[in-house]
Amino acid sequence: MAYKSKFLLLGLLPLLLLGFWLPGGVSVAAGPAATANEGYRVLAPIESGNLLLFPVVRTSGKAAGSSSFLTLDEGIKSGQVEVTEAGKVQGLVRPRGGPAVLDGNRFRGDQVNTLVLVNNSNQPLLLLAGEIVTGGKQDRVIAKDRIVPVGSDPIDLGVFCIEPGRWTESSAKFGATAKSPVESFMVQPAVREKAMVAKDQQQVWNAVGGAISNMQTMASPTPSANATAAVEARPLTTTSYAKAMQDTAVSSKVDEAAAPVMKSREQVIATLRQEHAVGVVVSVRGEIVWADIFADTDLLSRYWSKLVRSYAAESLSPGQTHAAPTEADAQHFVDMPSAGAETSTGEVGVYRFSEVKSDVTDTFVLESLLPPAGLEVHISKLKLLQDDRRLRTGTLVR
């Protein structure tokens, strides 16, 4: 089996000893805190305003086969992946050896938190929590990481709405956020956390509302040096996170915040490849908030622009500024052991998706069970927002 992150090993050991995989959700109490993770090393950061990105390289274990995965943007652009409202599909089945076709009445009516996805490609499809699909009756965000195998029946895709206020069809099928990879984006960490950790639609909407409010401030003109009147935020006239991010003024601010790692994108990616980087630790205004780690450099480079623009959007949100973290601080975040309740879900023979909760962080690991099994495709580690930390430790009264 491929190298297993030590912060998950204790939680998964009972299942491994039993020699079988339970397809439903499984919760087990973790034992003593796992020892430090020795599989990754943090490099000197790339600085961009309030944003610091610490590349992460693998120091042990060897990943293989990740290049076989198709990303959501690649699948939608090629037409090999289709996403529709549940009621629009009216039940898809896949004839032997052919693409999925309409038949029956499996899905009954459109649903806010469910879409239907069909993978007609000859590659397993990789989906990441926080990725956006636009269109249908509302723009949506993917709720959790998962893998959709080749030749599978259409799946119920768990999503959250990121466009409150609209329930009228703008298109029969859903599209990606941008035609060009350089312009693509996913929801910023503050919204992504609510989808992944809180798993609550209202909290996702609240985070979207806060993000759009910040974007309105971004979209306002910068007052001149001799201006006397306060400049009011320019209304964006949209409840859609995706449309707000696509606003010319907002997009310009995000691109400016990400400039050092986007204007020289190919050079940065070439450097990441040379260093064999597989992920990044993200610091916003001096606080380490997130880490995304992939199976290999190829996957990191394919998601690079989408991830960086989401981090840049987060760095433009208001908040307290702290002293810049060091490489040692970022390494500590990666090495920080996770202890607490673990929940695992997935699909037999396809993937396992595990969440390990602690008082300060949540760690999510997507493991491929497709041959060769045991490949850790994506790891997300995030620092909980202050209210979520208080709620988890029982010190916040609602």
Describe the overall structure:
- The protein is an alpha+beta fold.
- A hairpin with a 3-residue loop joins strand 18 and strand 19 (361-368).
- It has one domain (6-220, 234-393).
- The chain is built from twelve helices and 20 strands.
- The relative contact order is 0.18.
- The chain has helices at residues 6-18, 72-78, 86-89, 189-198, 201-219, 241-246, 248-257, 259-262, 265-275, 297-315, 327-335, 386-393; strands at residues 26-29, 40-42, 46-48, 51-58, 70-71, 81-85, 92-93, 101-102, 114-119, 125-127, 132-133, 140-142, 146-148, 155-161, 277-284, 287-294, 341-347, 351-357, 361-368, 375-383.
- The strands form four sheets. Strands 1, 2, 3, 4, 15, 16, 17, 18, 19 and 20 form a ten-stranded antiparallel sheet that branches. A five-stranded antiparallel sheet has the order 6-9-14-12-11. Strands 5-10-13 form a three-stranded mixed sheet.
Keywords:
398 residues, five-stranded antiparallel sheet, 30% helix
Compact description:
By secondary structure, this protein is α+β, with helices and mostly antiparallel strands. The chain has helices at 6-18, 72-78, 86-89, 189-198, 201-219, 241-246, 248-257, 259-262, 265-275, 297-315, 327-335, 386-393, and strands at residues 26-29, 40-42, 46-48, 51-58, 70-71, 81-85, 92-93, 101-102, 114-119, 125-127, 132-133, 140-142, 146-148, 155-161, 277-284, 287-294, 341-347, 351-357, 361-368, 375-383.
